Amino acid sequence: MKVFIAVTLLLVLTSVSQAKPKWHVLFDGKATTEWRGFRRDSFPAKCWQVEKGSIKTVGGCEKSDQVDIVTREKYRNFELELEWRVASGANSGIIYLISEDQDQTWKTGPEMQVLDDDKHPDGKKPSTSAGALFDLIAPLKKTLRPVGDYNKARLVVNNGHVEHWLNGDKILEYDLESADFKELVAKSKFKGFPRFALNSEGLIALQYHGDDVWYRKIRIRAFLALRSAPLRGSVWLAPDTQSQPRATA
């Protein structure tokens, strides 16, 4: 009987752990209620507006509202999906695992770069190009759609293991606690920010950079850690690139 109960309990727990959590819509094309300004309670409506089903930044807007927008909830293990497009030469970013104990989102949270690679200077450097872990890890084998078209981004954070996806392809992955990642940070501009990439849970931000950028179809699902992420001591590459040299910033 004890064996039967144990097996039954194991099957139930396995079934629960494998059940996919439901998507939660962060932007439905109309309402901005899931967002607020960084380090404020209200939404910065003078610099972020809804336009034809997208949240759009407003270039040249009133300085008091020139802030990143952040989710109202914090997330630890999650899958985020959205679509973005940029005007010619524009720059923005998706910043995650943020806390508000510093004066900028990027001083605590890693950033998935959003960029016009052809016209913005950051596009000339792989580790600051679209899809990159900004100024740390360059994307591999990415497909970027023309300016004016929407790109589909997917971001997965699972027990400290992070994946960046762009237009259906995994373009980089890394472990927040790995020796290689810590070494990259120590050699970068982020070494001067003691809280950078230390949070295991945090807010998600869309960056205001003064340029015209559109975001739409934003949704997220939070989950319990699906596995215990092993520390391989290195930046992880996509499965079909494991034999190639590691990408470094």
What can you see in these coordinates?
- This protein is mainly beta.
- It has a domain at 70-241: Sandwich (Jelly Rolls).
- It contains 2 helices and 13 strands.
- Strands 1, 3, 4, 6, 9, 10, 11 and 13 form an 8-stranded antiparallel beta sheet that branches. Strands 2-5-12-7-8 form a 5-stranded antiparallel beta sheet, with no helix packed on it.
- The longest helix has 17 residues, at 2-18.
- It is globular.
In short:
This protein has 249 residues and is mainly β. The protein has two helices and 13 strands.
Task: Supply the key terms.
five-stranded antiparallel sheet, disordered C terminus, mainly beta, eight-stranded antiparallel sheet, Jelly Rolls, 10% helix, 249 residues
Largest sheet: 8 strands, antiparallel
Instruction: Look at the helices and sheets and give the structural class.
Output: mainly beta
CATH superfamily of the domain at 70-241, by name, is Exo-inulinase, domain 1
Q: What is the CATH class of the domain at 70-241?
A: Mainly Beta
The CATH topology name of the domain at 70-241 reads Jelly Rolls
Strand content: 25-35%
Global mean pLDDT: 88
Helical amount = 10-25%
Radius of gyration of CA atoms, rounded to a whole number: 19 Å
Describe the secondary structure blueprint for this structure.
Elements: H1 2-18, E1 24-27, E2 35-37, E3 48-51, E4 54-57, E5 69-71, E6 78-86, E7 91-98, E8 111-115, E9 151-158, E10 161-166, E11 169-175, H2 179-186, E12 203-206, E13 213-222
Antiparallel strand pairs: 1-13, 2-5, 3-4, 4-13, 5-12, 6-9, 6-13, 7-8, 7-12, 9-10, 10-11
